[in-house]
Amino acid sequence: MPEFVLTVARFGFLVLLWIFVFTVVGVIRRDLFAGAKSSRLVAAPRGVGASAGHARPAKVKRGRAAHQLVVTAGQLAGTRITLGEAPITIGRAEDSTLVITDDYASARHARLLPRSGQWIIEDLGSTNGTYLDRAKVTGPTPVPLGVPIRIGRTSLELRP
Amino acid sequence: MTAPTAPAASPAVTGEMPRIRMSKSRRNAELGLLIFAMALITAYAATVEATMLDAVTPDFWIPAALVSMVFLGLHIVIRFLAPYADPALVPAVALINGLGVGFLRRIDMARADAADRANFPIFAGDGGRQLAWTLLAAIMAAGLLIIVRDHRIVSRYAYTLGLVGIVLVMIPAVLPSRYSEINGAKLWILIGGFSIQPGEFAKLALVSFFAYYLVRKREVLSLASRRFLGIDFPRGRDLGPVVAVWLLSLLVLVFEKDLGTALLYFGMFVVILYVATERVSWLIIGLLLFFGGATLAYSLGASVGGPFANFYDRVQIWQDPFADPYDAGFQPVQSLLGLGTGGLFGAGPGGGQPTKVPDVEDDFIFAGLGEEIGLFGLSAFLVLYLLIVERGLRAGIAVRDSFGKLLAGGLAFTLGLQVFVIVGGVSGLIPLTGQTTPFLSAGGSSLMANWLIIAMLLRISDAAGRPMTGSASAQGDGPAGPPVKLHGAPTEVIRS
């Protein structure tokens, strides 16, 4: 076997190896660097909206949309949940998105649903009721930004 | 079952916006990459024969073709059972695995008599065995994809798996050395001519258990804390689990005399703990505990000897391999010389003398490979490992339930840590420990266990990539149970 062929084979192999590596990178390039902000490797519902970063509905005007749910009063005061596109369940049940340890809260107390850029609060038949500011929530009600939702001793607000 | 759930079926009851994002399944990309990888494996075999025999035998393509058949079979299984799985995982792993088979065959040829080299039988030697193991490993990976249709099912057996994992870890420790010891490390079960490394399989079981346990406990572990020096430290009583695992790994270190395995189990747990709680303090505590334990073992080895002597010797060799280059330091010295001979571009496939390094088919495969493909080729391998780990972590990021996140993160990290431990050992960065190089080293246990990890990552990335329909619960392909849980993930409490 001539020396030339061997040299070509030897370096050709290395070059092909790297071409393969870059082809793999090319295949996964789209999500290799994308979405570093919206997606996190934290086992928590912030990740529920992990795929949300890609396809947020265009209708929502940025700045006016609610991006966070903040607990303003009660035992969990200071807690924030980043809103994705999944509904948020609130209650004492373990599988709720926001588990509140409030004596006046029911296991499945209320639910926040996104609907075309608006968040809707809905009482799930709780014992002590859900209040939007002072008014009792009876049916699905849109929640404006900054208006307190009261559940027992806990207050929640939507923030941009 | 495998067909994507029809978008029309999205229940409007939940009121959630039926967002239908057509995720492309990307299986054709996987097929293309796989064919590329197989071409590379064939090219490698041809180059080896051209260099070693000065001629390419007409049968040179057969081992590569057999490997290709195995992985194409796996690809077809994935097409049906995990259509939305990550397209980069299998080709990257297949390339490493296939080149490993090729390299082992090359070592067999170097060890055979010069006259027999040209027609060295395909199924003989380490290379032939590795070929058979590859087939078995691919079958096991396919089997896992068939049995586990939804990774969340695994969490139901978490405690059983945890027990199985601990038993698997402990078996070699309690067996008499005659049945479990090779080169001073008690990691095997030796029956007849066979050796099984149960610790390899324990990894998957233990990660599943850790993930499940920490999904349950992470609120306590991440909430209750005291702030000190700007970092939140957990309460004393919450340190229980991490101390327990630390003790377990220390026992592994003492009884199995293997630093690498101990480091692997402990690192695995600490990182899953970190992912679950998002607390840097766990990493700090973990590192402190590990270095404390290692220093303790080292000083005990110096003064008492006994079970710690092996670890002490390894550290001594690591500090100065050239102190005793013909006896104690022979292996690391040969490995370093091999890597040095390889230089930047290597001696070319088949052009080096990897057989000079003892155990080159096993622990030191990276040194043997490095002599022939050089730093340039080795970095390609390292980048491939990096990409595999990245794909695993990405699957963890994208999947929607906490258990899946922790499982994928833990498994991907375990693979990465194992590569670090062995490549670090071979290149002299850390004391050498007897870990296998994932997918590359000769050995069935390691190959099968690591392919099982890849199969699990494929399953999780499939769940993550599946197009979402109206309710999150509809994405599992099992029968929709009556209690419709809105999220797989329970609670997050984030302090501002």
Give the count of helical stretches of chain A.
1
Uncertain segments of chain A? 35-39, 43-63
Structural class of chain A: alpha+beta
| H and E string of chain B | HHHHHHEEEEHEEHHHHHHHHE
What proportion of the residues of chain A form beta strands (DSSP E)?
A: 25-35%
Percent helix of chain B, as a range, is: 55-70%
Number of strands of chain B: 7
Oligomer: heterodimer
Give the termini distance of chain B in whole angstroms.
43 Å
Give structural notes.
The complex is a heterodimer of chains A (160) and B (496). With 160 residues, chain A is an alpha+beta fold. Chain A contains 1 helix and 11 strands, in the order αβββββββββββ. In chain A, the strands form 2 sheets. In chain A, strands 2-1-11-10-7-8 form a 6-stranded antiparallel β-sheet, with no helix packed on it. A 5-stranded mixed β-sheet of chain A has the order 4-3-5-6-9, with no helix packed on it. In chain B, α7 (198-223) runs parallel beside α9, α7 crosses α15 (444-465) and α9 (259-277) packs antiparallel against α10 (280-303). Residues 1-22 and 470-496 of chain B have low confidence and may be disordered. In chain B, the strands form 3 sheets. A two-stranded antiparallel sheet of chain B has the order 1-2. In chain B, strands 3-4 form a two-stranded antiparallel sheet. At the A-B interface, α1, β2, β4 and β5 of A face α1, α3, α7, α13 and α14 of B. β2 of chain A pairs antiparallel with β7 of chain B, so a sheet runs across the interface.
